[in-house]
Design goal:
The chain has four helices and ten strands; from the N terminus they run H-E-H-H-E-E-E-H-E-E-E-E-E-E. By secondary structure, the chain is of the alpha+beta class. The protein has one domain. Strand 5 and strand 6 form a beta hairpin.
């Protein structure tokens, strides 16, 4: 009977090249689109009452695009989204982030799993009164990048852990809170998902 160690070594030798053989050493610039965020343009009862747009669309609404640069197992990214978050609010959101690709940095994979951090700013504008609520939140990212030639798919979970807010209402006081959910009234802990399709520009 063959040694279990020998079988494990053969398995690693066969499987590892499948992950590493397509590694791309080049730096490149990329653009990406969060297509599911478009569901906010169809404010049905399901969309306005559901936490799914928040939980699956990175809390982005409407047109949601990003641009970034990848190099040396790291990526920096800027994001911008504009759209109606529900029937009565327009959301304008900007983000900046950095991600480190563990697969590339440690095991020679092509992209693969990554971790990182980002800072998010968003302005909620009440369409009837014009009142604005400005918010800033730091987040941590956990994701996986799948390469398909010049195209890629980026799957991500982002976890907020604090929010600072201030309002345009006269005499309102800025606030700060340690919080792990974008909708604490619904659940005390909600990570936000992101599925975006991107193109490498080189």
């Amino acid at each position: 009977m063959k040694s279990p160690r020998l079988c494990l070594a053969l398995l690693i030798l066969c499987v590892a090249p499948a992950f590493a053989e397509t590694r791309d050493e080049k730096d490149f610039t990329f653009v990406a689109w969060n297509a599911p965020a478009l569901m906010s343009f169809f404010p049905t009862g399901f969309v306005t009452r559901s936490i799914l747009p928040t939980a699956l669309c990175n809390q982005e609404a409407g047109i949601a695009l990003s641009i970034g640069h990848f190099g040396d197992s790291q990526a920096v990214e800027g994001r911008l989204s504009v759209g109606n978050s529900n029937r009565t609010y327009i959301a304008v959101q900007a983000q900046a982030g950095w991600n480190w690709f563990l697969g590339e940095g440690l095991w020679g994979f092509d992209k693969g799993p990554y971790v990182g951090a980002e800072l998010r700013y968003w302005d909620l504008i009440q369409t009837y009164s014009g009142v604005e609520s400005n918010n800033i939140a730091p987040l941590v990212d956990f994701g996986w990048w799948f390469d398909f030639g010049t195209w890629f798919i980026d799957l991500r979970l982002s976890q907020v852990f604090a929010i600072a807010s201030f309002s345009s209402i006269a005499h309102s006081v800025p606030g700060f809170e340690i919080v792990f959910s974008p909708l604490p009234g619904i659940a005390p802990w909600i990570p936000m998902g992101l599925v975006q399709v991107g193109l490498k520009l080189y």
